[in-house]
Amino acid sequence: MAKEQQTQGRRQGVPLQGTPIFASPRPESGSIPRRSPPERRREQPPAPVPIEEAQVEQLQVQGLYIISVAARILEMHPQTLRKYERLGLVQPSRTVGMLRLYSQEDIEKLRLIKHLVEELGLNLAGVEVALHVFQRLLAMRRRMLIEMEAEAMRQALAQEMEALFRLLDLPEP
Predict the structure, then answer these.
(1) pLDDT band at residue 65, thresholds of 50, 70 and 90?
(2) Is the full-model pTM beyond 0.85?
């Protein structure tokens, strides 16, 4: 008999033991009451943050790849990339979660390492020496270009000064 009453109650749409927690009261007129929109606050835009040199350098780095993508680009096994990192041949940056991120410069360096190993037959000790020599050559080249630019600037400045002296009819010192 109790079972019959429970079933009857369900058929009529009456809850068995009161209103469930998640049920909302229905309006009798059939219209849905509307809430007034929440007041919107006008948020002021954040003040511009000055960018430091380290941040600018970080913004200029483009093309960051996780290890699996870098391995596919280079056609190398990810374990090989980890080995090169352990040996100090390449230092990928890391995310907060410690994922390796390879920049475009890292990819180029790894291509050079791959060339040295596969094409020239160097072992990893030889690769390390070759990379150090290569880095020193690049540094010398940069210094040479800077010196050449400085010399060209000195010559241009001297010519401009001579032209100004002649323009003003001043004797050159």
Answers:
(1) very high
(2) no
